[in-house]
Amino acid sequence: MHYTINITILQHYTIKRLHSVIQAHIKRNHTHYLVPQWSKDLAMPRIDAINVFLQMTGCTDSKRMLYLTYFEFLITLYYFIASYVSIIYYEQSVSIQLFTLLCMLIESYILLNITFRIYHKNQFREMDQYSKQLGIPDDYQSKINIITMYHLIASNMFVIFPVTYTILYDSVRVGDPFTFPFLDVLPIKTRNLVIYACKYFVYAISVYIAHIELCFINTTFIYYVGVLKYRLETIVQTIREAVVDNDEQKMKYAVIQHQRLLIYFNTMKIVFTKPILQSMSFNAIYFGLTTTLVIQAIRGYINQTIVSICIASGIAAIINITIYTFYGSVLLDLHDEILRVLFDNSFFYVNKSFKRSILIMMARATIPLTFTVGYIFTINLNLLLKIVKMSYTVLNVLLSSEAIKPHKMS
User: Fold this and answer.
1) Nearest 10 degrees: CA dihedral of 101, 103, 105, 111?
2) 3-class SS of residue 15
3) In whole angstroms, what is the distance from residue 83 CA to residue 104 CA?
4) Cα-based distances in Å from 318 to 90, 144, 173, 377
5) pLDDT (tens digit, 9 = 90+) per residue, 29-60?
6) Are 19 and 32 contacting, i.e. CB atoms less than 8 angstroms apart?
7) Residue 209 pLDDT grade (very low, low, confident, very high; cuts 50, 70, 90)
8) What was the pLDDT predicted at 401?
9) Cα distance between residue 231 and residue 251, in whole Å
10) Which of 332, 388, 400, 391 has the alpha carbon at shortest distance from 365?
């Protein structure tokens, strides 16, 4: 019965009309509701890492960090082209070709990620304006700090491993395969330690760029989910006060703020749909590829040095998928508290206008904030479970299969 009444109300009172009527009424009678004092008091300062990443999008007044984005794009484009040329035109061992394929996949992912970020610069600016005066819950700030620290540690590990491998094994010489953090694509022979150190530094830049881009999409996605959660918490608080005080103006203010939140959420989906679809697809493919390479290396068909690289990068791919699916599930539950407050109270003695606002809020809140990417799948923990099951099945097939056997290394 609730749904029938809600649909009827929505058919006669569009969101646009309701917004104009309520906003005009509030401006005439209760201007102090437009910016509540408790909302200002609860606002949290923005995290420094998020400020840096937003400056990299070009949506802020400072354009210095935008040049870093262009620098990343040019460096990544060069490495992608060099990797493609290497795998197509040069005859190399199976291990080097597979390592080249991994590098080329990573560079293509970074290129697309930077392209999406520049393309959606205006949408980032809109979200920045909406979230500038808001905060996020304290636990989200700590989680963003943890993710940032994780990418800092992971990037340093990927940079340190090749030089450690070079030092520990006497049979390995500087300039040999897997002694650089990236594929050796520069047309300079490694004749001495000075050239090796210079090339090592240049290739390390690519590793840091990759983790900067991963950290960008992970932390900004968590941040904007935190903004949504914080704003919904303030809306729930406003609804509670409106119900307790029987204050129609507060309820209308909550309706307006919820409408703005839905517009913000739609903008967020526009910005993150393509990067997350690409990231989920890339991480799933990359995890499957690295798992296959680990199996082949254990069986002795390719160089076993690649095992540690594949395991570390495969774990990173799973972590990225887990971040998106977990916070995608958080979005699904954000409307529950609004519905709980509205349905747990009776509204027999309120006027018709108050009831209309309540029914419109109920109708909107019954629609969950689902994050569907590419009309293919919904980002939630069920998707993570499906990916894990599929990976486990593929892994068992590979372990039990004797048909997939490349030629053994000499």
Assistant:
1) -150
2) helix
3) 6
4) 32, 18, 33, 17
5) 443 334 344 343 444 445 577 888 888 887 77
6) no
7) very high
8) 62
9) 15
10) 332
Per-residue pLDDT reduced to its tens digit, 347-372? 767 788 888 888 888 888 888 888 88
The pTM (predicted TM-score) of the whole model is: 0.80
Structural contact between residues 285 and 318, judged by C-beta atoms closer than 8 angstroms: no
Contact (CB, 8 A) for 279 and 217: yes
Helix axes 352-365, 248-298, angle to 10 degrees: 0
Please give the DSSP secondary-structure letter assigned to residue 377.
Answer: E
Say what the pLDDT of residue 77 is.
Answer: 93
Average pLDDT over residues 2-27: 42
* Alpha-carbon distance values, 101 to 68, 90, 97, 316 (Å): 26, 13, 6, 17
| Crossing angle (nearest 10°) for helices 94-119 and 193-245 | 40
Residues 6+ apart with CB under 8 A from 145: 47, 49
Round to whole Å and give the CA distance between 345 and 243.
8
Q: Kindly state the DSSP code that residue 379 receives in the 8-state scheme.
A: -
Q: Specify the 3-state DSSP secondary structure of 277.
A: helix
According to the model, what pLDDT value does residue 208 have? 93
Instruction: Indicate whether 13 pLDDT > 70.
Output: no
Residue pointed to by tokens 């795998």: 87
Structure tokens at 337: 């508290």
| Helices marked H in 189-247 | 193-245
The whole-chain average pLDDT of the chain stands at 79
pLDDT > 90: what percent of the chain? 10
Amino acid letter for position 194: V
Mean pLDDT of 50-72: 81
Alpha helices in 246-305 (DSSP H): 248-298
* Bridge partners, residue 378, by sequence: 372
Q: Which token pair is 8?
A: 């009827």
Mean pLDDT of the region 251-267: 90
Q: 270 and 377 in contact (C-beta within 8 Å)?
A: no
**What is the end-to-end Cα distance of the chain in Å, rounded?**
74
Q: CB neighbours of 115 closer than 8 A, spacing ≥ 6?
A: 73
The two three-digit tokens of residue 249, written as one number: 């103006």
